[in-house]
Amino acid sequence: MRVVLVGAPGAGKGTQAQYLAKHYGIPQISTGEIFRANIAAQTELGRRAKLYMDAGNLVPDEVTIAIVRDRLAQADTAPGFLLDGFPRTVPQAEALSGILDELQTPLDAVLELQI
Fold it and tell me: How far apart are CA 58 and CA 49, in angstroms?
């Protein structure tokens, strides 16, 4: 199962994502988590993201998209994944569509949580 979970801050995305990922046995992928993992591993993308984060700025779409692309290409996502809070912008959504086409992995659902 391949699911995208979107919603406003405080809508409960993280809570629902944890439940759904555990229930379906798929990885929960949040941009914050993969930013931190790339920063800890000192990858090139992690270093680029850290520059923006340390300055208190949002990480630009190009870096965010590249990090998500790398994560979705990992073997543990083959049976499915749950994207928590990505995409957040139209360019990110368009990029996600292209990434999924490249990986030949269509989405099963997009769930929007509302407060």
Answer: 9
